[in-house]
Amino acid sequence: MMIKRLLSGVLKERLKRFPAVALLGPRQAGKTTLAKTLSTLYYDLEQEEEQLRLDLNWNSIVQSKQLIVLDEAQAMPGIFPRIRGAIDSNRKQRGRFLLLGSVAPALAKNVSESLAGRLSICELSPLLLKEFKKSLDEDTLWFRGGFPDGGILQKKNFPTWQNDYLTLLAQRDLPAWGLPAKPQMTMRFFKMLAACHGQIWNASRIGSSMGLSYHTVNQYLDYLQNAYLIFVLRPFHTNIRKRLVKSPKIFWRDSGLLHALLGASSKENLLAKPWVGASWEGWALGQIIFTLQAAGELFDAYYFRTSDGSEIDLVLEFSKGRWAFEFKLTSTPSPDDMKRLNAAADLIKADKRILISKTNKLDCGPNFISGNIRQCLNQILV
Predict the structure, then answer these.
(1) Which pLDDT score, from 0 to 100, does residue 241 have?
(2) Contact 378, 352 (CB under 8 A)
(3) Could you write out the DSSP letters of every residue in 260-277?
(4) pLDDT at res. 105
(5) Exposed/middle/buried for residue 200 (C-beta within 10 Å: 0-12, 13-18, 19+)
(6) Which of 147, 203, 255, 278 sits 20 to 30 Å CA-CA off 287?
(7) How many Å apart are CA 305 and CA 14, to the nearest integer?
(8) Res 113: pLDDT
(9) Per-residue pLDDT, 35
């Protein structure tokens, strides 16, 4: 089953404007599949024989007009100066190289040293609700997550695939990328982060429970962010007469990984968990952020909370203004839900207020939207 990725339009547009594009994202999110729809000239640089093949054929390859796809390009650091030389020899030629990578720091270092000004960066998330036809039950995507092989297309794969994926990251990939932790400690950290999903980040508390300093815990968190496992939502600051919460919130990027770590065995079992609301909020919030990203929208994302309890789950600042989002796991949102959102949104002077729930009823006004995730995504992307 081939699913057209929302990012493909942005990726093609960037290739028309830049000599090289880096396509980044978590392992197994579909980067290679997407890249192979654009070119057959493909090299997996984690394989030594592929590195040799590229090296021996380099002169003829760079003479070609065909797009060259280099997968896991950070595994061959010496290729970056050669790419720069090829680009500089013909600066007018666009769409020459597509670099794929699963871990940002290694690529970022080489890009900043060799390809600054010559390359554009795109990020591919696991599969999004907007990429499926309406026949897909959104709860299935929420429960199993968006990795193509993780169960969304073949349900028998969940949660075995997720557990194997996390184990491989802890045992092989993260240590290879520089994470200074033993696999057992990394797996324990995964579970701690799963328990903290959607909460205010407290590195000192996590460090104390793991026997680590808060500096070390923050370092570990940075590695998981760079490996596209975790995303961090920063607090929104504004000049009001209230004390604001200033620590970030942390979320797992993929809900299937979260549910595997927390032992949710079925959709029915998930709904009985005490943390189900935080799970759904993080999933729906991620759908908004990563769908806008895939559509090429430029934006900044935050959350907002005051010390006396006023809160906005997501604040977006983008081309359409400042929008405030509230996520409620209910099929019958009440007028009080919108009233509370409006009161908090007034504090930051939000232009529009969006209440996302499990309702089937869409209600829109000049400065508000109330509806389900599909309805609100359609409104946002208009």
Answers:
(1) 65
(2) no
(3) HHHT--SHHHHHTSTTHH
(4) 66
(5) middle
(6) 203
(7) 37
(8) 74
(9) 96
Phi and psi angles of residue 326, each rounded to the nearest 5 degrees, phi first: -125, 135
Reported as type and span, the H/E element at residue 120 is strand 119-123
99 near 18, Cβ under 8 Å? Answer: no
In this structure, what DSSP letter does residue 306 have?
A: B
Distance of CA 267 to the CA centre of its chain: 23
Residue 211, Ramachandran bin (φ over 0: left; ψ between -120 and 50: alpha; else beta): left
| Helical ranges in the chain per DSSP H | 8-17, 31-36, 48-63, 79-88, 104-110, 138-144, 160-168, 174-176, 183-195, 203-210, 214-226, 255-262, 267-271, 276-294, 335-347, 373-380
Q: Supply the pLDDT for residue 156.
A: 93
Give Dmax (Cα) for the chain. 67
Q: Which residue numbers in the chain have pLDDT < 70?
A: 1, 104-106, 239-241
Amino acid at 358: K
Q: What pLDDT, in 10s, does the model give residues 132-167?
A: 977 788 999 999 999 999 999 888 999 999 999 999
Q: What is the signed CA dihedral for 295, 11, 28, 25, rounded to 10 degrees? A: -70
Query: What's CA 144's distance to the chain center, in Å?
Result: 16
CB atoms near residue 55 (< 10 Å): 12
Q: CA–CA separation, 257 vs 263, rounded Å?
A: 10
What pLDDT does 1 receive?
60
Under a CB-based contact definition with an 8 Å cutoff, are residues 288 and 182 in contact?
no
Which domains does the chain carry? Answer: 8-123 (3.40.50.300), 129-380 (no CATH)
Dihedral of alpha carbons 240, 244, 247, 250, sign: negative
